[in-house]
Amino acid sequence: MDVLDKLNSPGDIKNKSIAELYKLCEDLRSFLLSNVSKTGGHLASNLGVVEITVAVHNVFDTAVDRLIFDVGHQCYAHKILTGRREGFANFRSSGGVTGFPNPLESEHDAFLSGHASTSVSIALGMARARTILNHDYSVIAIIGDGALTGGLAYEGLSDAGQSGEPLIVILNDNEMSITENVGGLSRHLARLRVRPYYLSFKKFYRKTIAKLPFVGKKIDKSLRRVKSGVKVALLPSSMFENMGFVYLGPADGHNIKEVCKLLKIAKEISKPTLIHLTTTKGKGYKFAEESPEVYHGVSEFNINNGESLESSPQTFASVFGKKLVQMGKKDKRICAITAAMQTGTGLDEFAYMHEKKFYDVGIAEGHAVTMAGGLAKQGMIPVCAVYSTFIQRAYDMLFHDVCLPNLHVIFAIDRAGLVPDDGQTHQGIYDIGIFMQMPNMTILCPSAASELEEMLDYAVHKLTGPVAIRYPKAGNGKYPSEGSYFDPMMVKTGSDIVILAYGRLVENAVEAAKLLDNEGINASVIKLTQIHPFNTKKLLELTSNVKSLYIVEECVTSGSLASKLALELPETGFEGKIIALNLGNNIIPSASLDELMSLYKLDAQGIAKSILEKENHK
């Protein structure tokens, strides 16, 4: 890593020759493979954007100029080049470098990123601030073609193009989001990729004919008509130009000389400019190039053969996917929807077995939810599979298009609760508050993957109206429900206090109760499976004569079951104290799951310690 090792600051990149920049790209790929193979992370997307990142740092100063990564998971090379190389030893762990841009980590990170389709809107806001405050810096947004399946990207592009504000949008076109891109935009970009050398004609025209004295304006007027004819003849209609952008490209995003040249041209244009670069996701690593969706997000793996070194525990997603395939065979009304998360949500087999009943809408969660409402209204039973952090993007659609009309849509909410490694933007700790606000909504939480199978049947065939089933990525918990999901279930009896839990925390609560027994506090543990609504009368029976009810949750206090019960239970005659043990209203850092459980005292030891402290201070 001759070139990378000699870099002392991002400014050093500006003095490198093209040959040295190519060598730097090789060094970066070697560093990424060596480190991500040990720590896990987003691999394919970062390998694909190396040359673009190096070129940006060659042309711009990201301590002053504002570089916004859409989604943000492709920022690894940027972090390495901006003084955070040593932090990759503890990458995505406590005390290490985080996997997404974060201004609190470095001045070179212009904006917090984690969700898709936001970069152009952010860039336009920054550009307008620059103009109003009379500052001098460039604004660059890097957005992938997958993120252009999200509606917010078009809202930003439309406004930015018409604004006239100087800004640069780099379209990283690798024909992928996480799985293969879908929709009309993908076909449009495919046509643009065959665009001939129109840029050369444009540059020649600007430098010569348009600047001729006396006759230049007349020739310019005549040639504008010729220019329009050339555009029509040589290239397809560009929606970006129609929006108001100067369009440059497409060009090879791995040709660093060409990318640097286009960036310098765009910097001088002083108008909204879009640079279209084609790249290969997973570039430089055979296995990632051949299967970019497999290497989108990886755990520890063997570089030589690409095989994972981590054992694969049973995931809730795999159980969900297999069960839905079986149900789809028996009931033609059952269909599945995902938002560019086919593999992650366990729907690969369903997509293959029930192709006509499977809909991947791209990165468009709001559309997915509203379309599910339309399907349900006409007699289908849509199952919409989405990560907890991304359902936040469809709040209005949940309320207006599904819950208000009381439509039977099943929401399979994956990655609920604490999410390791990916940090603050990906935590599944807000959906409880969102779903409890929604009219007609039922919320279910399996405590083990095995429980999910029966729960899916229950949600589809026994319930009506909207249903959310929320679960983490993995778990082999115990204490499956017995009897009605509507009724709270006693899983351990005691006489002094009650611990109420749901989901994977039921097991931690039981272990904590056993620790408390050794300290002279006899604790009951009650499991909720249907956490909203549930049988409040039954809960009161199970908690009669108990002075303290501890509610253990993987969510924020302001959107918790505890806050709801603190208002409702006293009105039903409950006279004990209601004490919340949850995440507070904290922003969750990058760390392993065990580290997070320990940090927020939601492991068995932490729960027991918190209860001991509160009981001893009475």
Entry summary:
By secondary structure, the chain is an alpha/beta fold. The protein contains 25 helices and 17 strands. Helix 15 (348-353) links the parallel strand 6 (334-338) and strand 7 (358-360).
Notes on the protein architecture:
The structure is a single chain. This protein is α/β, with parallel strands linked by helices. Helix content is 41%, strand content 14%. It has a 7-stranded mixed β-sheet with strand order 7-6-8-9-11-10-15, sandwiched between helices. A 5-stranded parallel β-sheet has the order 1-2-3-5-4, with helices on both faces. β4, α12 (256-269) and β5 form a beta-alpha-beta unit. α16 packs parallel to α18 and α21 packs across α25. It is globular, with a radius of gyration of 27 Å. Mean pLDDT is 89; it is low at 193-199 and 226-237.
Strand order of the largest sheet: 7-6-8-9-11-10-15
The portion of residues forming beta strands comes to 5-15%
Measured distance between first and last alpha carbons: 61 Å
- Major β-sheet annotation: 7 strands, mixed
Number of distinct helices: 25
Task: Kindly provide the radius of gyration, computed on alpha-carbon positions and rounded to a whole number of angstroms.
Answer: 27 Å
Name the helicity range.
Answer: 40-55%
Uncertain ranges: 193-199, 226-237
Oligomer designation: single chain
The number of strands is: 17
Shape by Cα distribution: globular
Structural class: alpha/beta
Mean pLDDT over the full residue set: 89
